[in-house]
Amino acid sequence: MRSLAALLLAVPALLLHGAARAQDTPVPEAVAPGVWMVQGQSALGSAANRNFISNAGFVLTNDGVVVIDALGSPALAEELLAQIRRITPLPVTHVIITHYHADHIYGLQAFKAAGATVIAQRAAGEYLNSETAAQRLKVSREQIFPWIDENTRLVPADRWIDGPTTLTLGGMEFRLQPVGPSHTPEDLVVYVPRLRVLFAGDLVFRGRVPFVGQADSRRWIEALDSLLGYDIAVVVPGHGPASTSARADLQLTRDYLAHLRLTMGEAARNMEPFEEAYARADWSRFDKLPLFQAANRINAYNTYLLMEHEAK
Q1: Which residues pair with residue 65 across a beta bridge?
Q2: Residues 6+ apart with CB under 8 A from 291
Q3: Side-chain half-sphere of 77: how many Cα atoms within 13 Å?
Q4: How far is 14 from 20, CA to CA, in rounded Å?
Q5: CA atoms of 117 and 32, how far apart (whole Å)
Q6: N- to C-terminal Cα separation, the chain
Q7: Mean per-residue pLDDT, 238-262
Q8: Tag placement on the chain: N or C end, fewer CB within 10 Å?
Q9: pTM for this entry
Q10: 3-state class of 136 per DSSP?
Q11: 154/90 Cα distance (integer angstroms)
């Protein structure tokens, strides 16, 4: 472990436990000893931002580098690989995918070309082979061109996992814990116990309104409750800066989901029209968060439909 220890001592102390800043390009910032992240912008994916709207992280070990999530375009992934090579000559041996949303996986082909093994939760296979995934890629090729183009492809995992799994590399233990279905059916978090770092994927949107989509918000809340029991020094969320206040940031996402379910659930039970329920609901705790205007209404509507279904 001497080589890794020497490298960790070289990391400027002022960066450790700091929150990464959103950049135009993936510039790593240290968030714990031997742990870096790049922070995407709080925006919708576009050609202007190259689909750099999500986070990715990586952990150094004595035998190689483990990357968590692959960013939203091959060009971004190539830039991240170049940044990793500036930090260490060791290869990227594994890429762990927290879920198969486009902004986290379109960079996978660059890591595969570099020789990395891709690991993901098996439930992602159904989405990967679906018409939804194919159509999403088609639309991305139009809306995010030239960063997503005809050469961009969907990359399956080399290793699909079905339950809690431990990966050990260079003396570092990574605990892979499936927590779906919640944000997606295939949600996976990565916990590094020695460093007390949790890569939470899109279970945590720090400092912004989450994208709920077709999520199972009840299970998502249950998953966040389970994560609140972890011994965590740093959370790397799927979106937003790293956090050294794990409980508060897990709780914010949890409280937003609970508020959606409370307000929309009451409306669904009372057969109140969505528009009236949405206008009546109190959004004051969340309406100053980034992407509230872009995401909250559709989040509420999807939750309204979900609560109608759960009430049957």
Answers
A1: 60, 92
A2: 42, 43, 44, 208, 209
A3: 26
A4: 12
A5: 24
A6: 57
A7: 91
A8: C
A9: 0.87
A10: helix
A11: 26
CA 270 and chain centroid, separation: 35
Contact, 183 vs 201, CB < 8 A? Answer: yes
What DSSP string runs through 23-34? -SS---EEEETT
C-alpha to C-alpha distance for 284 and 102, rounded to whole angstroms:
30
Q: How far apart are CA 51 and CA 53, in angstroms?
A: 6
Spatial separation of the C-alpha atoms in residues 296 and 287, rounded to whole Å: 8
275: which strand partners? none
pLDDT tens digits, one per residue of 251-285:
888 999 999 999 999 999 999 999 999 999 999 99
Q: In whole angstroms, give the CA distance from residue 167 to residue 104.
A: 21
Give the residue ranges of DSSP H helices in the chain.
Answer: 2-10, 74-87, 102-105, 108-113, 124-128, 131-143, 217-227, 246-269, 274-280, 292-311
Judge residue 250's burial from the number of C-beta atoms within 10 Å of its C-beta, 0-12 exposed, 13-18 middle, 19 or more buried. buried
Sign of torsion over alpha carbons 305, 247, 252, 294? negative
* CA atoms 227, 231, 233, 236: torsion sign: negative
Confidence of residue 11 (pLDDT cuts 50, 70, 90): very low
Task: Give the type of residue at 21.
Answer: R
CA 87 to chain centre: 23
Give dist(CA 49, CA 72) in Å, integer: 10
280-305 pLDDT per residue, tens:
999 999 999 988 998 999 999 999 99
Structure-token match 């931002």, residue found: 49
Rounded to an integer, what distance in angstroms lies between the CA atom of residue 139 and that of residue 211?
Answer: 18
Angle in degrees, CA 81, 235, 187, rounded to 5: 75
Q: Tokens 């609560």 identify what position?
A: 307
CA–CA distance, 252 with 63 (Å, rounded to integer): 37
